[in-house]
Model the fold of this input.
Amino acid sequence: MSGFGDDEEEYQGPVTVVLPGDTGDTGDGTSGPGGANGAAGKGGTAGDARADGDRAVGAGSAPAPPVPVEVHAHLAGHFSPLTGDYRWRGRLAASEAITAAFQDGVRTVLVRTPDGFEGHGVLDDPNLWGGHPVRGAGTPPFAVPRIEIDD
Done:
């Protein structure tokens, strides 16, 4: 028994959770203003990038790329006749990167299975084991049976 409904399609296995890259942490230890030394525009020469508040501006202020995180997941979903869309939900295994992004305010993520299916989901508060529940509406990140309607 999985804890999900008997009438739901399920997926268990590895997924890639794609976190937005502009959460303030680039994942390479150079988070925050000025990168690794935290001193962009402070005490530098006239040609250095100047700080606007605590963020450097200029050529180095491009948004960071999305960050993929590999985790194990248990996902399930069903068609909702009341709303007319597909609802899915699941549990992501514990991940320091996902928890850090959640603490930085990230809620919407892209969940992708190795088969190429993907869906946008919303993270919830971490559970007792450090993983995060995730839920979404619309296209799920796993295969669902196709139903052909006869005319």
User: Anything to note?
Assistant: The two ends are 37 Å apart (CA to CA). The beta strands are 9-19, 51-52, 55-56, 67-80, 85-92, 108-112, 118-123, 132-137.
